[in-house]
Amino acid sequence: MTGQRQEVMAALxxxxxxxxxxxxxxxxxxxxxxxxxxxxxxxxxxxREFVARIRTxxxxxxxxxxxxxxxx
Length: 72
Ligand SMILES: [Zn+2]
Fold this sequence. Notes:
Elements: E1 11-14, E2 19-20, E3 23-24, E4 26-31, E5 36-42, H1 44-61, H2 63-71
Antiparallel strand pairs: 1-4, 2-3, 4-5
The structure holds zinc ion.
């Protein structure tokens, strides 16, 4: 035990019920810090685009990040 634990920033969920023809067709993003869920988005192309951008895009307007910045 190190006494430290890594904080989980966010979680990306891909709905396993929507796996069609070898491609994910639905995904959603859940931020555990601000309790925001984005999506789900549907369609292989949209899912791919969503997954690619959401992890960098969400923190730019994440409420939890803004609160942390204010306190600093
Ligand atoms: Zn957030």
